Target: SLC13 family permease
Amino acid sequence: MIPEFLHPWLAIATTIGVFVTLQVTRRIPIDLLFLLALVFLVLTGVLAPAAAIAGFASRAVLAISALLVVAAGLRSTGVLDWVGNMLLGDVKTEQSALRRIAGPIVASSAFILNTALVAMMMPVLIDWCRQRNLSPSKLLLPLSYLTILGGVCTLIGTSTTLVVNDQLRLSHTAMQAEVAQLEEAASPDATAIAKRQTALPKVAPMGFFEIGMVGLPCAIAGSLFLILLGQKLLPGSPDLIEQLGDQRREYLVEMQVLPECRLVSKTVEEAGLRNLHGLYLIEIDRHGDIITPVAPGDQIRAGDRLVFTGVVSTIVDLEKIPGLVPAADQTYEFHPSSRQQRHLTEVVLSRTSPLIGSTVRKANFRALYNAAVIAVHRNGMRLTNKIGNIELEPGDTLLLQTRGDFIAQQRNSRDFYLVSSVEGAEPRRHDRALLAASLMSVLILWMTLASLFGGGGLGDPAIAALSIAALMVLTQCVKSSDARAAVDLQVVVTIAAALGLGSALWQSGAAGMIAESLVNLVGPRPYLLLIVIYLLAMVFTEMITNAAVAALLLPIAIAVAMEGDLNPRPFIMAIALAASLSFLTPIGYQTNLMVMGPGGYKPRDYLVAGVPLALIVATTALVLIPFVWPLTLTN
Model:
């Protein structure tokens, strides 16, 4: 076993090793790397086994897992599609998209748990990027940063401020008891009593918007940087664009506009049908009158048949619009409850298929295969005929609506050369959209009230998220299989292991050793001490959990302020802000980890974009804090 005096140094070396490995290579999965670091610290005796696995049962991990299920429910019912259309419907570039979402995200994250916002908005932004052949790496990290910035505008914006507030309640109670003891002493020390009575209001719990007096200017300054310059520092990740792209097969598809469709009375431009990547609107069939070529100002009416050529993903996107249904095969099932049993499948017709020579309308797919034709592709040719009138040939690729067992039954059939499922084509339960949105509203209200009146018992964010996630499954807003698939194990394991790594730094004494040494070097210079406290919290929050940073540094800051006859309030607020504002590493905050995989980021990407952002926010905070909360008790 390693000697105990070496434990702090081992914890520091292991943490540095994880960061260096993440920077040098991506061959080791991030979750495996953190697990290996955790196992090493347990084997060397730095961390007890119980502390190492505590992260896997932490409230944060449980809440994030449940919120991913809630987000899946919002996605499967079409709520996220509606949100994405409202925010990004007519936006064409990443910079315009960032400008459009910045305000709503910052405002929402002041009242909604950051992880919930990122879990909901991440699939919306990824879908929007895929439709336009853009890289999500330009938007996902700014999404995380914006939620972090908005979190410091109110007491309930982030869990870190709640931890600080709990610590303040304990400190305030302890100081009151200390004053009472001094007053009851045989020879009361009037000077000591007066000092503590003066400082007592300065360690009282925070007001709801108190931190926002500096947090809001920090959020504004940080958001402006992200919009004007920050996005340019992020990678374009062309390989991600390829991952999001589809096979370049162009299908011919005919969609019918039902009376309840939201596209009715909109122009083609307003409906966003000219912005979808890989899609071209050939003509509009209006009760036999053909409109071609289609102009951006042409209006869409109920009953119109819209004829497109497009890749699979755009056809899937069209099918997700309520009231827009494929018109090639009248056996297509478009009622939400019926469509849940149906899937999109691609098949390639063989020479021995009995369908060869028949038109789509006469092929009678329902009787032969219990399937409906949605679209047709013929290699090397752009089909312009009506789909129902196309005469099928060997090698034609058909996009079908099928039962779940179709692939298993037809995989070895001589009728088809190839049978494969279409990913991301799950039907939307639009009939459950209002219910899913209501459940999400209940979750937001639940968490807000719990934050205001105490977070114990039923007020625990994890309990709230788990309850709503269970209701999403019970009310069929999301299928149980989709709910299980929504929980990203890599994200969950990485966060849980990162919590264990943070515990090692804390429990080994490494964090306290570094903090006290740096503070002692500063001496009795109030503003310099404020800067050091802020920078300490900022650096530590990139390595260990935000709550641990707040719990570790707050008592030290209060003690140092009291010893130097300084006002503890600015130091308290500096810790609350710095511990919440994490931009430099993927493990500094949970949302940074959540976007790392989908955005294809490397640790250096966080540094390139995060360092200037952190400096801007830190400068704003350190300039304003002394004006809002004076450094001396006499003021």
In short: The CA atoms of residues 349 and 395 lie 5 Å apart. The first strand starts at residue 251 and ends at 257. The chain is about 55% helix and 10% strand.
